[in-house]
Sequence to fold (450 residues):
Amino acid sequence: MTLEIENNLIRVNNQLCDFSPDGLFFAVAYHANLIIKNSKTFDTVHSFIFPSIIEYLEWSKNSEYILCANIKKAIVQVYSVYYPEWKFKLMEGSAGLESVSWSFDSKHILTFSDFSIQISIWSLEDKNVTHIQNVKSTFKKLHFSPNGNKLAVVISNEGEEHIEIYRTDRWKLDKKLICGHLNSIDGLSWSPNSELLCIWCSFSNEVKLLIYSNKLERDIAIFCPPQITNSTEIGYTYQKQLKGIENVTWMPSGQLLAVAGFNEMIILLNHVTWKPLLQLYLDPVIKENYLNKVYKDVTVQSNKNSLYDKHVLEEKSERPINIKIGNKSNIDRLSVAKFDILVFSFCGQYLAIKHQLYPTTLWIWNIVDDYLDYLLLENNITAVKWNCTRTQLLVFCECAYMFEWTPHSARCIPTPRNITALDARWHPQGNLLLLCGYNKAVIYPIENKS
Fold:
């Protein structure tokens, strides 16, 4: 069965394929066709016809339903895995459709209208619809608490901004946060235990991050980046300080908070004191450090034919090593070069980092021992995926190879059928991958070396 699965190419629309949360099925969208397959046997379980080209799909949290959408035509339709005759269709109408997502209870669908005029909450049970008006236009992502009980929304009304927190059992307003300490609200992030909400202002003269306790119903900390200038609290001396707040990512345990700035700087805040614990600057020169490992993508040419050339990851011992900067014309098109990958491993010990200035380089930060591994690749990195069951990272580029990193080694893996894998979806058990190319996908079994 493994060989059969590896050799089966699947046609898809723009990487639209995914495993169900329970891992029993995977869904594939191709043109207007939605195909549901069994994850073990690879057999087709259901096939549905959508009214138009499918541009988006998403499984419900309980794995019983799957929604498909055509964003341009503002059509959303829901199908049932266990009751294939049933379907639910909605059209957003004159407000248009910008994005769509499931609620955590698998009983409601939330749609963003064009220009974020409103969020509409559609009930699958009674077909009623509830609206949240005046959502700030830059917030096109739904901020559910990890337990699914609360939804935080940034509201902008007559020049004033505040946060509304809704209970998702009745979709009633639970709290209204004024956030008077912030000049503007530029980002939100719930803690993994759903008790804390990070709220930050990115660009103003007063860059701040608030930690609001949902349990105590008050702010419990305020962090201002300039306070770490020449900080001696963390045992290091830094010539650079964090400038602005671009993004915030929680460690899975909630014990640390990674705060990324607009100057290639990351700091880690302690969840008790909310003060800096560690700091990392993405230096374009790799200097001497006996703990750091540098793996470089090297092409090994065949004597016979260039078609048989192999890629390998070689560990490099020389120092210093200059990190390749991205094409200047590409960087110039970006208003501000940003971190586009900032993801913790499931265990929380490692943080994978990529910045748009260095599109072919991945930093892997061991935050327990405070050292770095580097992957220096030939092609632009398009995605990384941590295994959800063990410390294993897969890196995808614009090539017919993927790269695997573990704390002990790194290697290059040819993709099945030479598919150009841009991204992947892990099976919930961490033993299968759906490799996603431009318009193709393939199931790939992953070896467990642990």
Q: What stands out?
A: The first helix runs from residue 2 to 6. The longest strand covers residues 150-157. The chain has a mean pLDDT of 90. Helices lie at 2-6, 328-332.
